[in-house]
Amino acid sequence: MNVGEVDLLVGVSSRDAADTIAHALSAIEQSFQQYFVRQRVVIVIVGSGDKDKKNGLLEATSSTPFTRNPRQPGITSLRTIHRVTADFSTPPPPGVALHTVLAAADLLRARACAVLPPAANLNPSAVASLLKPAYHENFDFVAPLYKRHKFQGLLARNLLYPMSRAVFGCAIRELYSDEWGFSGRLASLCLNQDVWQEQAIRARPEAWMAISAIASDLRCCQTYLGEKSQPPTVAGSDIVDALRQTVGNLFWCLEGNQSLWLDSQRSQQVPTFGPEHELTSETTELDPHRMFEMFRSGVTELEPILSVILDPDTLIEIKNVVALPEGQFRFRPDLWVRTVYDFASSYHHAVINRDHLVQAFAPFYRGMTNSFLIEHSDSSPAEMEAASEMLCAEFELQKPYLRERWKANVEVKS
Amino acid sequence: MRETILQALEQVYSNLVHMVAEFLPRFLVMLIIIAIGLLVAFIFKQMLRALLGLTKIDRVSEEAGASRFLRMAHLPAMSELLSRSIFWVTWLCFVLVGLSVLGVAGLQEQISRLFRFLPEIFVAIVILFLGAVIANFLSRTALLAAVNAGVRSARILSWSIRFVIWILAITMALEELGVARQTVVAAFSIVFGAAMLGLAIAFGLGGQDLARRSLERHLGDTKTENDKEPQPL
Prior knowledge:
The complex is a heterodimer of chains A (414) and B (233). Chain A is α/β, with parallel strands linked by helices. Chain A folds into two domains: 8-280, Alpha-Beta Complex (Spore Coat Polysaccharide Biosynthesis Protein SpsA, Chain A), CATH 3.90.550; 288-407, no CATH class. Chain A is 50% helix and 13% strand. In chain A, α2 links the parallel β2 (41-48) and β3 (81-88). Chain B has helices at 2-55, 57-64, 66-72, 78-101, 107-148, 154-177, 181-206, 208-219, 225-228. Chain B folds into two domains: 1-104; 118-221, Orthogonal Bundle (Helix Hairpins), CATH 1.10.287. The A-B interface holds A 151, 153-155, 236-240, 242, 284-287, 290-291, 293-294, 297-298, 301-302, 305, 308, 349-354, 356, 359-360, 362-363, 365-366, 369, 373, 410, 412, 414 and B 59, 62-65, 67-68, 71-72, 137, 140-141, 143-148, 150, 152, 154-155, 229-233.
């Protein structure tokens, strides 16, 4: 299908989404009809042809000229909304799907693009929120912001956000998300980089894309989307898989962008559209006792491995806090940051197999989560935000420690 | 009488001179061969060291866990170990060739036997090395998986895996060397069979719940309690 040039391009993967893809496509089309009436638009659906055919997806993905929104009869798109389907024999991993979307964006010279999950609760305004900053304000990377339960997104709150903010000097809260917006310029830039065969990119390409924007001095922003749309299958619902895809990926990004942070101090303002953050205070089903038990047993059982990864002083302190009774245990921010930086530098020096290293990090994350749940069981959103800022400051303060460990000649104890 | 003794002494002396005259050039040739061997071995070592430096084998070895094993055995880094090995193997070959030039009765036979045996020693060393690397990697994989799954006594599981792989590697190496071949194979079969039977019984009796959960996870569609547990993400 020849669709010429477009203004807006939205990529969506149909992977494991037979039940929800139709709704997601409908939400995207409604967004075009309501917010981008005059723009030339295209939806790129990345899926596996045979499976999708069986699921009746292909029948639902033909182009729909002059689609009318039955709920808002007065608003009609003036242009044809094209749907392009990229078929793969097997469902492509996220990196391959993104590469396809970027290739389409580059080919069609799209000005603003977005990658979206095929979620059942995807809403038209969220789609528009991701596209508008890139289209109207010339931003190059648009990260989402969500309304969160206060114990949701703990990995982002306690590690990914403060560490990426301290290291790359760019305060993007949701570096790892399955929906984000970007400019055609950033699409072309990323498309031409020789990283697409890397496992880290194939599994989780979004953080790398944001860091590529920061490294090229392109403009980043955040936009508030409200409730997080849930994809049909929650990727990485297993904690080790989630750590592989995020923490492992972040460590990989650190290594690939050393010139960006190792010898320079960068800081980029990240404008935010909508509220900076929004927390709700429902109770949590997480079990702090089990978290602590798994932390304690993990540190005890993995001691030979940890002695290779951690600095001796850090390991001694970890052993000291593990020995405390559960009620007295707190993972101090300075110790947490030093532990994370030790893991990052050991990942760089490859002191053990890197996948093993990320797996060995899981008990520490459980320990930190236990500490966080106990400490903030009664905290208000404002107090939690203040604690989060303090943690960010600690990551910033100890950045020289990371640099020192990163540059040190690896000398591993047996 | 006196003349006879003198003649005998002359004869012995001339024989000795003859033997020394015959031996000295061979000894000289042996020394030259050994010296050349030293030079060739040194060149080989330097070439291999440079080549391994380019291939970044130390990093690969570090990631595979082999370097840790080497450190535990107080051995140098992988590139250094291979470079030194090529040096000593090359030089040993030249030394053996040099010794055979001496023409000492019986020595040549022993040297040729040693030469025939060298490949088997080399293969046995490689088997042991690979066994150590695989044992290290798999035991660590098991340890991490068990710890993150909340399995108690994860380290015992890890050690068991390491032990079984070590036994397998040692058995294969001894079989390669031809040391008490039948005894070794029989002993391995008994030890390995007993270990597996023990594990099966222990798993079956002591870990009925774990077995059920594993089977459910791998064969059935039902989610286990562990899977349902909310994760702090």
